[in-house]
Amino acid sequence: MFAQGAPPQGGANQPYTMEYYYKVQWGHQQEFLDLFLKNHYPLLKKGIESGRMVSVKIETPANHMTEDARWDYRVTIKFKNSTVATTSDPDEESVIKQLWPDQATYKREEGRRFEILLAHWDLPVTDITPKK
């Protein structure tokens, strides 16, 4: 297709899509997912409610892969636009405190989620499907 990757995504006011990949220590996939759904997914849902995000989709592969290519979870987020996708949410800290008033537990569990994570990478993606 393209020698150096896909062309940049649409204009500044167009939706901007990012894929976030997570590779977890073998045998800890369910623990990671449980912690993700408890301590991160509610924050993503708040992003949709606020209008910063258009959609969030969580997927796992149906078949196995080689260890070097393996990923366990992919979270695809369609942001309102590229600016929102590439800048931090100024309200995030207050939303986190609102969602998880027990900050000690939240921080401990988030620490554990990252402790069992082997790799994490972010990939901006561009839809290049022809219109017709």
Describe what you observe in this structure.
- By secondary structure, the chain is α+β, with helices and mostly antiparallel strands.
- The chain has one domain: Alpha-Beta Plaits (2-Layer Sandwich), CATH 3.30.70.
- Helices cover 36% and strands 24% of the residues.
- The protein has five helices and four strands.
- The chain has a four-stranded antiparallel β-sheet with strand order 2-3-1-4.
- Helix 1 runs antiparallel to helix 5.
- The radius of gyration is 16 Å and the shape is flat.
- The relative contact order is 0.27.
- The N terminus is likely disordered.
Features:
132 residues; alpha+beta; Alpha-Beta Plaits; four-stranded antiparallel β-sheet; 5 helices; 4 strands; disordered N terminus
Q: Structural class, please?
A: alpha+beta
The name of the CATH topology is: Alpha-Beta Plaits
The count of helical stretches stands at 5
Report the CATH architecture.
2-Layer Sandwich
Percent strand equals: 15-25%
- Uncertain segments: 1-7
Strand tally = 4
Strand order of the largest sheet: 2-3-1-4
Label the overall shape. Answer: flat
Mean pLDDT: 92
